[in-house]
Amino acid sequence: MTIQKLLAEGTKLLQIPSSAAFIDTPSLDAALLLAETLRLSREELIMRGNEPIVEEDREKFFKLLERRKSGECIAYILGRKEFRGLAFTVNPGVLVPRPDTEILVEAALEYIDSMSAQGKTMLSLLDLCTGSGAIAISLKNERPFLTVTGSEISREALDTAALNAEPSVRFIQSDLFENITGTFDIIVSNPPYIPTGEIDALAPEVQREPKIALDGGTDGLELIRRIISRAPEHLCPDGVLLLEADAGQMPDICSLLETHGFGSVRLHKDLAGRERVIAGTKGAQRA
C-alpha cells in the first residue's frame, strides 16, 4: 500500500459518523496523523504519495486514527498546537489554543502599539488564566520589549506553560489576582466563560479539555466578575483590561466594566463577525 492510498483509507475511516467525536475535517486530521506517523510534513506526504508503507507504520497510523475516533482531539494526540506561528506543547491539563483567541492577541497589540506611540517604552502585561501560556508568550514574541507575567491556578497548566516559555516570561501560580503584586499597563484574559449547564452540550473533544478552564459558573460570568472587580487596583492609570468571552455576554460585561470605573469600552469581532473580545480603559470617560 502507498502513502496516498493509506491516507485515503484513513480519511474514509474518519468520515464515518461517531458519537464519541465530532470530526469536521477528516482529510486534514488524517493527513496530520499520517505525517506524524511517518515524521514527514504534509507537503512531503503529497510529494511522496506513491511510496510504499511498511506494515509497522500502517499499524501506528491506525492506532492514532482510533484515538481520534474515540474523541481525543488532534492537538492532544500530537502533543502540540500552532498559535500565532508558534508551536505550543499541549496536553489534557491545558485548554487547546484556538484561532478565535488570536483576536484577543491582536486587540492587545493595538493597545500596546498605541501606548508605545505615545512614548511609553516600558510596558508591562499580565495574562490571567494563562493555561499553556500561548497568549503571554505570543505577545512577548511579537513585542519583545514587553514585561510579561502569566497567572494560572492550575499547577499542571503552569508546568506546561513552562515548557513553552522563554525565560523572560514569568509565570505565577495564583487564583486570579491572589498572589499578584504591582500594577500593569495591560491585563488580558481568556477566562472560563461557558455556563455550567452548557458544558455537557459541548463537542465531545471539548469536554475532554480541563473543566476548570471552561466552566464559568451559572451564567458564565463568575470569574469575569472577579477579574473586573479587582483589575482596577492592578492597572496603571489609563491601563487597559481585555477579556475574551461569548458574544451574548458582552452587554453584561460592558455594564460590569462601567460599574467598576472603566470607560472607552470597545468590542472586537472575530473572523465570523461575532463579538469576541471586550476592552475597557481604567478611568476613561464613558462613551
The CATH architecture assignment of the largest domain turns out to be 3-Layer(aba) Sandwich
Distance between the termini: 65 Å
Largest sheet: 7 strands, mixed
CATH class of the largest domain: Alpha Beta
Which tags fit this structure?
Helicase, Ruva Protein, domain 3; Rossmann fold; 287 residues; alpha/beta; two-stranded antiparallel ribbon; 9 strands
What does it look like?
β3, α7 and β4 form a beta-alpha-beta unit. The longest helix is centred in the middle third of the chain and has 16 residues. The protein folds into two domains: 69 residues, Ubiquitin-associated (UBA) domain (Helicase, Ruva Protein, domain 3); 201 residues, Vaccinia Virus protein VP39 (Rossmann fold, 3-Layer(aba) Sandwich), CATH 3.40.50. It has eleven helices and nine strands. Helices cover 38% and strands 20% of the residues. The strands form two sheets. The protein has a seven-stranded mixed beta sheet with strand order 5-4-3-6-7-9-8, sandwiched between helices. Strands 1-2 form a two-stranded antiparallel ribbon. By secondary structure, the protein is α/β, with parallel strands linked by helices.
